[in-house]
Design a protein that fits this description.
Length: 368
């Protein structure tokens, strides 16, 4: 169980000074446009990712007149307390502290505070490039297969070497054949880990006890390895060598993997309405969180920006019940409190007894 108990924010966008204690279950942030709701979620994302989900330019996130921002979170992991502190400055200085100790990379943050983020960019999972879907799949593989991280690093290294060799004049296949042995071996490891995790993920999505089965349409999920798996991978690399040299990069391999979400014969993004897409995307994230908690006995924290945008009340209720069953901590934003409150009302659910809703009014960067 990972959950955020307290959150302190200084100088993040219009949030000058915020200090709030949070519900272990449902936290609702409501208020007018521009009041600071998404910025609150952005602060939590900084704690879990070490970066914003909205901008890569840190200077756009720091309050205009200030030189740095800080976010501090107090977490509960079972009965253990963990603190995370992040300080980002315009000068580029970047400090991450876990339990008071400086850490060098954001990877340990993902272990302390695993997040599921559903915001406007979440639609990219269906509508964006393959890299979005690969990231979705690899998030699970990273968290449930400890051997994935090192294989992934090896893959990045060998692809980099291979791609730079491809740009050399008069390169012959025999010049890179040795690297390809490493490339093939690592690719096979990564491919197998992804396939294993996808099998478990599909089980969680289709058969999980999580109210997700009644989306109202059937979705087929398939996986593409990044090369034709019916053929010998070494043979593919040899025969695509000229093409690789011409393009200056490696055309086939696990870096080109993808997931396909289909409804009937068509891509989900080509046939679903916006609200249907959002229901599917939320269900995929919830299934991912189920798998994560089953395999690691930890919980994800959900950040859902503008939950009710695009969703009707029935679909929003289905999602809220699935989240309640998951026993995750949820941060959700919206404009009107009554609509948001109404979707967590579920008189038929015994889990509803354990729901503790905290309601925060966000107004000009102040949170009450
Ligand atoms: N670097 C910054 N410094 C100060 N204020 C900023 C900065 N960047 C953005 N803002 C302002 O912060 C406010 C908070 O924006 P935010 O996106 O969190 O609002 P919101 O409550 O999510 O609104 P909406 O309902 O429209 O989604 C906005 O008024 C925005 O103009
Ligand atoms: Mg917003």
């Amino acid at each position: 169980m990972s959950l955020l108990k307290r959150l302190q924010i200084t100088s993040l966008r219009n949030l000058d000074e915020v200090s709030i204690s949070l519900s272990p279950t449902i936290n609702i942030f409501y208020g007018q446009n521009g009041s600071g709701k998404t910025s609150l979620l952005e602060a939590v994302a900084l704690l879990g990712l070490g970066r914003s989900f909205r901008s890569h330019k840190i200077r756009t996130i720091i309050e205009h007149t200030k030189s740095d921002l800080t976010v501090f979170g107090e977490l509960l992991k079972g009965s253990d307390k963990v603190t995370i502190g992040i300080q980002r400055a315009r000068s580029g200085k970047n400090i991450i502290r876990v339990n008071g100790e400086n850490v060098q990379t954001a990877i340990s943050l993902a272990q302390e505070l695993p997040l599921q983020i559903i915001n406007a960019d979440a639609f990219l999972l269906l509508e964006g490039s393959s890299s979005q879907r690969k990231r979705f799949l690899d998030w699970m593989v990273f968290h449930v297969k400890p051997e994935f991280a090192s294989a992934w690093k090896r893959l990045q290294r060998v692809i980099k070497q291979r791609n730079s060799a491809l740009k050399h004049d008069k390169i012959k296949y025999s010049d890179i054949a040795l690297w390809d042995q490493e490339f093939i071996a690592t690719s096979n490891i990564i491919n197998q880990l992804r396939k294993d995790v996808l099998t478990d993920f599909k089980d969680s999505f289709y058969n999980g006890d999580n109210n997700l089965s009644d989306l109202g349409f059937d979705v087929d999920i398939s996986y593409k390895a990044g090369w034709n798996e019916e053929e010998d991978f070494e043979g593919i690399l040899k025969s695509s060598f000229e093409k690789d040299v011409r393009s200056g990069y490696t055309n086939y391999g696990p870096h080109r993997a993808d997931l396909k979400f289909k409804v009937g014969l068509q891509l989900a993004s080509d046939v679903l309405s916006r609200g249907q897409e959002k229901s599917l995307i939320c269900s995929l994230h919830i299934a991912q969180a189920y798998l994560f908690s089953k395999k690691t006995h930890k919980q994800c924290v959900f950040l859902i920006d503008d939950l009710l945008a695009e969703l009707d009340i029935d679909n929003a209720k289905k999602l809220s019940w699935a989240l309640i069953k998951l026993k995750s901590q949820v941060f959700v934003t919206g404009i009107y409190k009554d609509n948001l409150l109404s979707i967590w009302n579920n008189p038929n659910s015994k889990e509803a007894e354990n729901v503790n809703i905290k309601l925060f009014h966000v107004e000009h960067g102040n949170v009450q």
